[in-house]
Amino acid sequence: SSCSSLNFLTVGSPKSARCDDLEVLKERKCQQVENPRGKIIINKDTPVTARNDGPVKLKPEQITQIQPQNLTLKLRSGEPQTFSLKFKRAEDYPIDLYYLMDLSFSMRDDLENVKKLGTDLMREMKKITSDFKIGFGSFVEKTVMPYISTTPARLLNPCQGSENCTSPFSYKNVLKLTENGEEFNRLVSQQQISGNLDSPEGGFDAIMQVAVCQDQIGWRNVTRLLVFSTDAGFHFAGDGKLGGIVLPNDGKCHLENNMYTMSHYYDYPSIAHLVQKLSEHNIQTIFAVTEEFQSVYKELKNLIPKSAVGTLSADSNNVMKLIIDAYNSLSSEVVLENPKRPAGASISYKSICKDNVVNTGENGNKCVNISIGDEVRFDITVESQKCPSNGNPEVFTIKPQGFREEVTVILDYICDCDCATKGEPNSQRCSAGSGSYQCGSCKCNEGRIGQTCECSKDDVRTEDLDANCRKDNGTDICSNNGDCVCGTCECRKRDNPAEAYSGQFCECDNFNCDRSNNKLCGGHGRCECRKCICDANYTGSACDCSMDTSTCVASNGQICNGRGECECGGCKCTDSKFQGPTCEACPTCPGVCTEHKDCVECLTFQTGVKKDVCKDECKNFRLFRVQDQGQLPQPNDQTFPQVICKERDENDCSFYFSFAVRNNTNEVYVVEKPECPSSPDIIPIVAGVVAGIVMIGLALLLIWKLLMIIHDRREFAKFEKEKMNAIWDTGENPIYKSAVTTVVNPKYEGK
After folding, report:
1. Cα 267–272–274 angle (5° rounding)?
2. What does the pLDDT look like over 162-178, one tens digit per residue?
3. In a domain, 750, yes or no
């Protein structure tokens, strides 16, 4: 935007300072803002063709499938313009189909099936459109070595054995597009197979001639289909060197008597050249190839827009079904393209397809599964980043691939404000006619300089002018922040449009004031001549001191809890024991350890009563882990209050931590391993108990034994004593009889 107010510029401001963002100009109190806006002008907007149920059939040029057809975009740099295009597949849209067939020897069985194709295909296509034309062409190879044999006999009949073949040729237009299917059958029936030496064929030469020879082929401005039928690969640009042909294909028609006559002179076309010509003439290609070459032609399909590949049976008996399927596939997809992209603008697409499916990005220009009568919409955004060097309008087209219709878009760039066209030539406001007055400032005539063209380049000396641009002797011209123009400083413009130099000598600026929190004037003021002008309720050199005391009110309603003073929106605690934004935190007061014990335990060991709610209730903690108690910060070593705590956890283990409050955050150092009482050794205890019981048993047994021995000895001694003291009577018992009886043998004689 630009300000055209007369007295808008301040002292030292350059003319370029009139241009800025709209909001900035309003803040600078501009009264007349020039802010031209872009717009869309529809020049031609014929509605898409609706269903035609009348008796009169529409001509192709009367059918409209895309709307609008012509529009103008008034484009301003950085301001995108979006317009919508409608596309609707018309019913009963005419179709031209040209059948291009490889007539090399390997296709001899295919030719028999193609001879009846005309009437059969005509009958099937009539189900899709009532206006259908069909044509036929054939190709073999370039008529030079090493592609064909140039011996006289082989030129007459290139086939071996008893086969009767026609002479080799590059391309022949057998039948111009016609509505007569019988004529197609008759002429195709007259064709003969030919032959060549190498496997790849010269089909690219034929495709190029079919594309560019519009009149000879009979193409109309309708849907154009080219069916390319072969069972071999293809030669392309560069292969002609094998036959000594080095001149690139010129992409022009060279048919004489329906025969391509320059195959020996021009090389094969490149794939890119074919893509260009097929797209230029809106021809959709169907490659009907055998299974062996499917992969090759599928790669080719990816390079040629609006093309399809079908698998051809060995004898081409499925060619009609292949054509119908390929046509349905091609016609159900709509892809927008802009062949010539405008140099000064970018284009992006967004498609709203069938069933409200939205595509953006790379697929934004595409819709699939479109049936006859379906309507889709494309939103196209055009944006210019800068004005073209010449400022002239640009024209480009947008067209659906494979269709003749296109949309013409005219880009009219807005490079000047409206006030530039209403200037006052030789205005008295510009030093008595020394310049034109435009948009609030003077545009000086040749040889004049200055804000109002008041100086002549030939009548002034640089030394005199420079002296007027110094604040005092010894200082730089315009404080080294501007240029001295006609004795007046014009301050330089900064890369950042929000930053500017000002003042008579460009000694001021609005970006070199004090900062707070990396914000100019703390974000609470404006910078004027390197000094902060603070907003209400803020003070300080960087406007970083708030005069609001609401942030200092403690939970008890007192300012700083009655233990400090509120300065710059924060509390300064007078009692060193208290901390925090409102002097309510006291790290060294009794009960602090118990109060924070549960949070320290859950944060460190993931145990305790708060282990399930730790993240919610223990947020304001900054935790540091240490190896042992000796690494805990000591209270006497710190410049802020700190306390050492010892608490027990749920396992009756002791853990140590230090607690302090720093920058409104609870700072905790904790010993990572708690001290737990050692558990008793069961085996020694059991062994000791058993041993004790055994020893006590043995001791009791020994004591009992000892007592029994002592008792027995005492009893024996007593017995002995009584025995000694006893007096016994030695008389015989009168009733005693001896137990011994002596008997004398009477016979004994003592011998």
Report:
1. 65
2. 777 888 889 999 999 99
3. no
What pLDDT band is residue 85 in, cutting at 50, 70 and 90?
very high
Residues 262 and 327 in one domain: yes
CB atoms within 10 A of CB 242: 14
The CATH number that applies at residue 469 is 2.10.25.10
Looking at residue 13, its pLDDT comes to 65
Q: CA-to-CA distance for 621 and 658, rounded, in angstroms?
A: 12
- Split at pLDDT 50, 70, 90, the class of 739 is confident
Q: Are 221 and 60 within 8 A, CB to CB?
A: yes
Candidate from 374-383, 586-595, 656-665, 668-677 with smallest mean pLDDT: 586-595
Instruction: Determine whether 285 is exposed, middle or buried from the number of CB atoms within 10 Å of its CB (0-12, 13-18, 19+).
Output: buried
User: How far is it, in rounded angstroms, from Cα 649 to Cα 607?
Assistant: 8
CB 346: neighbour CB atoms within 10 A?
Answer: 12
Statement to judge: residues 137 and 240 lie in one domain: yes
Highest average pLDDT, of 122-131, 568-577, 636-645, comes from: 122-131
Question: What is the average per-residue pLDDT within 450-475?
Answer: 71
Examine the domain organization and report whether 347 and 468 are in the same domain. no
Whether 223 is covered by a domain: the verdict is yes
What pTM was computed for the model?
0.55
274 pLDDT higher than 90: yes
Which run of H or of E encompasses 686? helix 682-725
Give the model's confidence band at 625: pLDDT under 50 very low, under 70 low, under 90 confident, else very high.
confident
Mean per-residue pLDDT, 27-40? 78
| DSSP E strands, 405-556 | 407-414, 435-438, 441-444, 448-449, 455-456, 482-485, 488-491, 501-502, 508-509, 515-516, 519-520, 525-528, 531-534, 538-539, 545-546
User: Are 529 and 444 found together in one domain?
Assistant: no
Whether residue 18 is found in the same domain as residue 110: no
Contact assessment for residue 493 and residue 467, using Cβ atoms and an 8 Å cutoff: no
Number of domains in the chain: 6
Q: Any residues with CB less than 8 A from the CB of 277 and at least 6 apart, and which?
A: 208, 211, 212, 251, 269
The Cα–Cα gap between 326 and 136 comes to 18
CA 356 to chain centre: 24
**677 part of a folded domain:** no
pLDDT band for position 549 (50/70/90)? confident
Please give the Cα distance from 376 to 712 (Å, whole number).
129
Please choose, from the candidates 285, 283, 167, 155, the residue with its C-alpha nearest in 3D space to the C-alpha of residue 229: 285
**Full residue range of the structural domain in which residue 18 is found:** 2-37
State yes or no: pLDDT of 12 exceeds 60: no
pLDDT tier at 55, thresholds 50, 70, 90: low
**CA-CA-CA-CA torsion sign (245, 246, 251, 254):** negative
**Is there a single domain that holds both residue 228 and residue 307?**
yes
CB atoms near residue 339 (< 10 Å): 12
Q: In sequence order, which ranges of 160-259 are alpha helices (DSSP H)?
A: 181-189, 203-212, 214-217
Whose tokens are 């020879």? That residue is 213
Is residue 87 within 8 A of residue 378, CB to CB? The reply is yes
User: Taking the mean position of all CA atoms in its chain, how far away is CA 427?
Assistant: 55
Q: Is the pLDDT of residue 374 over 90?
A: no
The mean pLDDT of 221-225, rounded to a whole number, is 89
CATH number of domain containing 180: 3.40.50.410
**Distance separating alpha carbons of residues 637 and 644, to the nearest angstrom:** 12
Do 109 and 220 lie in a common domain? yes
The CATH number of the domain where 402 resides is what?
A: 2.60.40.1510
Q: Are residues 317 and 404 in the same domain?
A: no
Is residue 537 situated within a structural domain? yes
